[in-house]
Design goal:
With 152 residues, this protein is mainly beta. It is built from three helices and ten strands, in the order βββββαβββαββα. The longest helix is centred in the last third of the chain and has 6 residues. The chain starts with 6 loop residues before the first strand and ends in a 10-residue tail after the last helix. 26% of the residues are buried.
Length: 152
């Protein structure tokens, strides 16, 4: 790796067996959701709301949001706290990984063969030792009004 390249730190996590990354500057905190309240008539990706240190946080099941076959167990799941506009959100994920410092020059464009819904929220990928790390664009992931909810 060249010292002259820009490095970005990513908080990594897995959902449905896929490795994802979020730029660390977008992450407010990582927490274990407790005492979530289900929101009546909310979309299937809304796991509920909770009070986190005095703030109301809307918890989104990332696997459902991206139509992935996530096996997230609400009792074992972790959440990544994100601010979007003036709202607080928690992305419910299967497991939190480590923080990786990666060279911006190594980030590749989103592959054309990436699943369509995932490709819409991806901001590129990194090829890591046998794994593909998909960098998520937080704004696109949290833009809940961007597409109509699928009929159940």
């Amino acid at each position: 790796m060249n010292d002259a390249t820009n490095l970005t730190e990513y908080v990594t996590f897995t959902t449905a067996g896929q490795l994802f990354g979020l730029p660390i500057e977008r992450v407010q905190d990582v927490f274990k959701p407790a005492r979530m309240t289900r929101v009546p008539m909310a979309g299937p990706e809304i796991a509920g709301v909770l009070n986190l240190r005095g703030r109301i946080v809307t918890v989104i099941n990332l696997g459902k949001r991206l139509d992935l076959a996530s096996q997230v167990d609400a009792t074992a799941a972790m959440a990544i706290g994100i601010e979007f506009g003036s709202e607080s959100f928690g992305l419910l994920v299967d497991a939190i990984g480590e923080v990786l410092k990666l060279s911006d020059g190594d980030r590749e464009a989103t592959p054309v063969n990436l699943e369509r819904k995932l490709a819409r929220v991806a901001a590129g990928v990194f090829r890591l030792d046998g794994q593909l790390l998909v960098v998520l664009d937080v704004d696109r992931v949290l833009d809940l009004g961007a597409e109509p909810a699928a009929a159940a």
